[in-house]
Amino acid sequence: MGEREPVTAVFTWDVRPGREREFEEWAHGVHEEAARFPGHQGATWLRAEGLRHRYYTVLTFADEDRLTAWLDSPERAAWVDRVAGIATAHRHQRTTGLETWFSLPGEAVPAPPRWKMVLVTFAAVYPLSLLFQAFVAQPSQEWPLPLRALAFPVIMVPLLTYAVMPGLSRLFRRYLYPAERRHRPASPVR
Question: pTM of whole model > 0.90?
Answer without folding.
Answer: no
